Automatic annotation (TrEMBL):
Pfam families found in the cross-reference section: SufE
Taxonomic source organism: Nitrospirillum viridazoti CBAmc
Fe-S metabolism associated domain segment(s): 25-142
Family affiliation: Belongs to the SufE family.
Name of this chain's protein: Fe-S metabolism associated domain-containing protein
Alphabetical list of InterPro entries matching this protein: Fe-S_metab-assoc_dom (IPR003808)
Domain of life: Bacteria
Length: 147
């Protein structure tokens, strides 16, 4: 188990490594339908947020599906949980969590979320879904800035 109280545990390089791993993972998928299937598989595997723990203040508006985002601060990192009622969106949330969950705020702010667009996610999604991803990232970055 990672010690999140140790600020040296995660760095920007760790986020870069996670981004590179995601790009390599998606590079082997030939077309959008393969990427979509993989996103749905990631969505099925996402722990999410149990319905009884979904609060109105955690809901993110601006996407065609319902989104919830819970960000908790530890002394050295942000712990992030997210969920959606749409399977594709759950997969996109899984990508965001792989990048940012458990990372220190400074590392989050120093990292560009452009990898999500490079995965061809932005080009192939409905504008409201792509907007949902951007809203989630914006909220995470705002929480990192406030930490």
């Amino acid at each position: 188990m990672t010690d999140l109280a140790d600020p040296t545990v995660f760095t920007v390089a760790d986020i870069d490594a996670a981004a590179a791993a995601l790009e390599a993972e998606f590079a082997g998928l030939d077309d959008w339908s393969a990427r979509l299937k993989h996103l749905m598989d990631l969505g099925r595997a996402l722990d999410g947020i149990p319905p009884q723990q979904r609060r109105d203040q955690d809901q993110v508006t601006g996407c065609q599906s319902q989104l919830w985002l819970v960000i908790e601060r530890t002394p050295a990192a942000l712990r992030i949980r997210a969920d959606s009622d749409a399977l594709i969106m759950r997969g996109l949330l899984a990508l965001v969590l792989r990048l940012y969950d458990g990372r220190p705020p400074a590392a989050i702010l120093a990292h560009s979320p452009a990898v999500l667009d490079r995965l061809a996610v932005g080009r192939n999604l409905a504008p409201s879904r792509a907007n949902g991803v951007h809203l989630i990232v914006k909220r995470i970055r705002e929480a990192a800035a406030a930490a």
